Amino acid sequence: xxxxxxxxxxxxxxxxxxxxxxxxxxxxxxxxxxxxxxxxxxxxxxxxxxxxxxxxxxxxxxxxxxxxxxxxxxxxxxxx
Length: 80
Known about the structure:
The chain is mainly α.
């Protein structure tokens, strides 16, 4: 069992290393610009509810998944 777990972990690590090698400096700069240009206030458009029961009813009514977000800190700083 240990050998199997080790092989799985090694495979995951190898795949991650291979995909990271494909990302050069140009790709990183492009990705940074994409993030900078994105809508950082999109989360404000989400119909938030203070009650889990109300959120569940809305989820069932709208046939949309329920996403539970918990937070401890100041969300305005971007450090959740």
